[in-house]
Every structure is written in C-alpha cells, then in structure tokens.
Amino acid sequence: MTQDLTLCVREYVRSWPWIPAVALVCALAVSIVALRFNAPVVLTIFAAAGCLVCAFVWGYTAHLAREFPRLHGLRRSQYSAVWDSLSVTADGAAFAATGFSDESSLQTSGKQVATRIAVAISLKASDDVLEIGCGVGRVGWAIAPECSSWIGCDISKAMLSHAQRRLAGLSNVRFAHLREANLAEIPDASVDVVYCTNMLAHLDQMERWQYVMEAHRVLRPSGRLYVDTIALDSPEGWAMLANNLEQRRSGVEAPYIPIPSSPDELISYSNRAGFAASQTERRDSLLIVTAVKDATANRSTS
Description:
This protein is an alpha/beta fold. It is 49% helix and 17% strand. It contains eleven helices and seven strands. The chain has a seven-stranded mixed β-sheet, with helices on both faces. The longest helix is centred in the first third of the chain and has 27 residues, at 41-67. The radius of gyration is 24 Å and the shape is elongated.
C-alpha cells in the first residue's frame, strides 16, 4: 500500500509540479493576514503550521520527482515492479512504452506496427493470436479485429489495466497477467501466432530466451512467431549502447534501460527452441525475426 501511494504521488507530482508551491504561497498569505489583523492565536498557529507542512511537502515531492527516473531501489530483473512504477497513469504508461502518449499517435503507430506484423506472419482471420508484453494495447487494438481471438499478456498489472480499457469494445480479446517472465498461464499448443514488439530490448538474455521457448510451447504445429527489437549493429543500436554506458558512468542507470540485439542472438534462440524456417530482416534500425513451428512438432513440446 505504501509503495503504491508513493508511485501515485510521484506520477502526479510529475504531472502537476506547481501544486505544492502554490499551496505554500497560499499558506504564507493566510499567515501574513492572520498576523496583520491580530487574528485569534489558534488561527495564527494553524496558519504557521500550514506553512511548515506545505514547505515539507514541496521539498518531499521535489525529491520524489528527481528520484523518479532512477526508480530507486528496483533492479532490472524486477520487471513487474519496474513497469508498474512507470504506468501509474494512462499517459505515463503510454509514454514509458512508446515515447508518446497522445491517442492519435498511439493509434497511427499501432496500425503501422500491426500491418507490419500481419504481413510478416501472413495473419489470417481464423488465427488465435497472443502478444507478449502487450503494454497499453497499442498494437493489440489494431490486430484484434483482424483475427479470431487475441490474448494480451503482460507482467505489469498496471499496463494490463490500461490495455483493458483501450480494447474494452472488442469481444474477442482476453488478458493474462504473467506472474513471472514466462507464459505459464497459457496452455500448450493453444494459439496460432505469437508476437512480441518493442519489448525484447527491456529484457535480459535469459528472459528473452525463455519467452522464445515458451512461444514454441504455446504455439500449435505450423504456428508462427514474430519478434522485433533494435539491431545492435545499426547506428541507433550503437547510440543506445553508448548512451547506456554514459548513464552508468554518471551513476544513473534506469532498470528499464533498453539493450539492442544481434541477428545471431535471436536466431540462436529460435533454432534452439525448435523453430523451423527462422528468418531475420532489417528495416533501418529494426531487427525482425520470424519463425515457424514444425508441422509435426509434438503438442506437448516445452
């Protein structure tokens, strides 16, 4: 409860940083008026106490605002806590996941990414589709109407709550809260498509590998996998890595810091998990991997 309250305070302080200052000015004005017009002692004491409280709140909220980017005390591996911290409000969640929060940009980019995925895996209206790391539902909102069913999975309950509101008008969707970095909540061989977009860079290698293995498990024979992330050998990927190093040197290292991948890394995950027909594609800084589960694969493969 205390942690949730702190996270709420942080988010609202970032949205309205002027409120504590205005409250302090008002409290000071009341104190001056009380002293000037010889107000009752009790009122004067209350006014002075109000000034002290407002000053304390202003200082405390300023401290929280400065601390927010560091997510102090959280480690990268605490994926649920980290992303819950970043998604207290809908705007905060969207910005943390995509870099923007206005609905027009979310819809435009969501449609673009959904089209890219649909073409890459030859999406069919009869497909049951699962998204790993659905975030605020930006892409799911555009893909769900084009398939038989859509499952949005995320390790952050807060992110899922925002996605649920965005996709509330669709009857073929459901959501799964992942308790750990796997798909334990999803049955074996139960979907036709698994995709993961704009999420892999925020995971460590073990979790990336684990999600690919889990994708193979939950896919039906001939099921398709789509994954995209930032390419390490692109100018943007190297700039990202250089920026990460500078942050570490300066003592500021956010637990959600993105780490790019190489084609060999992702292809290795795909092949080791048992996928066939693994392919990579580069689109500027974007690295895309698609793969197909063998049509004869045992449905109990894990």
